[in-house]
Write a structure and sequence with these properties.
Length: 73
């Protein structure tokens, strides 16, 4: 051969490992959303009535929202 080299694929992970990594990332993203919702809903309880009024939320609505399960949007 006249100096031609065969291009090799770079060493990488196998397909099952890549699929598992993608699945893990999706699960991690859902867990981050759930954690954010949990923190946001808990923060409603810490707000004063005046602060809630500024947001246009009643105390009853804040209590209702803070007691919703984090997995429900």
């Amino acid at each position: 051969m006249s100096g031609l080299t065969i291009a090799h694929r770079p060493a990488g992970f196998s397909r099952p490992v890549r699929v598992a990594a993608v699945a893990f990332e999706k699960v991690a993203a859902v867990l981050r959303v759930w954690r954010r919702r949990q923190r946001e809903r808990a923060s409603f309880l810490a707000l004063s009535d005046v602060e809630l009024q500024d947001l246009g939320i009643s105390r009853a609505q804040a209590n209702f929202d803070s007691n919703r399960p984090f997995w429900r949007g």
